[in-house]
Amino acid sequence: MIETAIVGAGIIGRNHAAAIRRHPGMRVAALVDTVPEVSRALAVEFPDDPPGCYATLAEALADRPVDLVAICTPTGLHVEMVEQTLAAGRHVVVEKPLDVTLKRSRHLAEVAKDAAARGLVASVISQHRFDPASALVARAIAEGRLGRLTSAVASVPWWRTQEYYDAADWRGTWEFDGGAVMNQAVHTVDLLVWFMGTPVEVFAQSARLAHERIETEDVAVATLRFPSGALAVLHATTAGYPGLEVRIQVQGTRGSAVVHADQLEYLVTDEPSDAGVPAEDRFGAPKPDDFFVVGHLRQYQDIAKSIVDGRPPAVGIDDGITALATVLAVYASAALGRPVALDEVRRGDHDDVEFGSAL
User: Fold this and answer.
1) CATH fold of 2-127+298-316, please?
2) Reported confidence tier of residue 286, pLDDT bands at 50, 70, 90
3) Is pLDDT at 289 greater than 90 in this prediction?
C-alpha cells in the first residue's frame, strides 16, 4: 500500500481523500490541517481505518509511515510544503497551480530534479489531461489528424458569490490565491498549452467587476501566440452568473475538436475514419456526480504506477511551471498594458510587477 498524507483537509483535500480511497493500492494514512476540527471531520469518513490527524506535516511524517504527500493547501503555501516533503524523502503530488510566483517555482524545479535523482516522484495535479475527451483530442493532435493547428478558444465562464470569497481570508489575495485565471482557469490553461504548445507571447486585459474585498481580478481575457503562428483566445471569469461549463476548441487545417463540460462534443477531420465518431463518444453522457473524484483517481493511478515502476509521472513539475508561467504572463501583460513574451516571465523580468495595478 502507498501510505498517503493529505496536507489541507478542506474542499480539495476531501476530493483527494475520496480518490485515494478508491485506489486499491493506496491508503489515507494521515490528515494535516492547522484547524483540528477540519481534519477530524474528514477522518470520521474513514470509520474502518481512520487516518491520524495532525497540525503539521512534520508531526505526521514523524508518527506515520508515509510514502506520498498530497499538498492541498492554499496556493501560496505549496512550494514550502513540497520542499519539506522531498527533503524528508517522500514522494509528492501538489495541486495546481504550483505556486503564485514563478520565482519560488523555478527553485522548486531544481529541488524536484535532485529528488528525481534519488528516485522520488514529484507530480502536479492536472487531472483533466486524464479525461478521456482531452486525451483523445491530444492524441489526434499528436498524430497530425488536425493538421497544422491554427487557432483555439478556451473559456472558463464561472460564477463565485461574494460569500465564497468572504469565507476564507486567503481567497482572492495575490499572496495565497490569485484570481480567476490562476485559481479557476489554470487547469484549462494547462489543457490549452498541452494541446497547442508553450505560447511565445501573451496580450491580456483584466478587471474586477462583481466582487468586493478581493485584491485580484474576476474577469480576464487574453490572446496567445504560439511558435507555430497559431493564435488562441483565453477567457476566464468568476463574475458570470450563474456560471457555465468550461469549453475549449481547437482548429487546424485538417480538422477541429471541441471539449465542452469535460466531454468530447465535436471531432471532425478530413480522414474518413474520423467522420463517423460514434455519437456516444462524441456527445458523452452527462457527467456523473463523482466526475471530479474520478478525474483525480485517474491521475493517482498514474502517480501510483510511477512510484511502483520507478518512472517519471505523466505530469511533472516542469508542466506545472509552464502553466503557471502562462498565467503570470496574462497578469504581467494586463498590468503593463502591452504584450509580454513568455521568455520574459521565465527569466523573472516581471517578478516585481504589481499585478493589482491593472484593476
Assistant:
1) Rossmann fold (3.40.50)
2) low
3) no
User: Do 40 and 33 contact (CB within 8 A), yes or no?
Assistant: no
The cell numbers describing 338, all together, are 502591452
- pLDDT at 274 (0 to 100): 63
3-state secondary structure the chain: CEEEEEECCCHHHHHHHHHHHHCCCEEEEEEECCCHHHHHHHHCCCCCCCCEEECCHHHHHHHCCCCEEEECCCHHHHHHHHHHHHHCCCEEEECCCCCCCHHHHHHHHHHHHHHHHCCCCEEECCHHHHCHHHHHHHHHHHCCCCCCEEEEEEEEECECCHHHHHCCCCCCCCCCCCCHHHHHCHHHHHHHHHHHCCCCEEEEEEECCCCCCCCCCCEEEEEEECCCCCEEEEEEECECCCCCCCEEEEEECCEEEEEECCEEEEEEECCHHHHCCCHHHHCCCCCCCCHHHHHHHHHHHHHHHHHHHCCCCCCEHHHHHHHHHHHHHHHHHHHHCCCEEHHHHHHCCCCCCCHHHHC
d(CA 199, CA 322): 9
Judge contact between 90 and 303, C-beta under 8 A: no
Max CA-CA distance within the chain?
Answer: 59
CATH class of 131-283+321-358: alpha beta
Q: How confident is the model at residue 278 (pLDDT cuts 50, 70, 90)?
A: very low
CA–CA separation, 300 and 20 (whole Å)? 7
Q: What is the pLDDT of residues 69-78, one digit of tens each?
A: 999 999 999 9
- The reply to whether 2-127+298-316 and 131-283+321-358 are identical in fold is no
| Domain boundary assignment for the chain | 2-127+298-316, 131-283+321-358
Nearest Cα to 20, choosing from 65, 76, 67, 58?
A: 67
Distance CA 7, CA 232 (A): 36
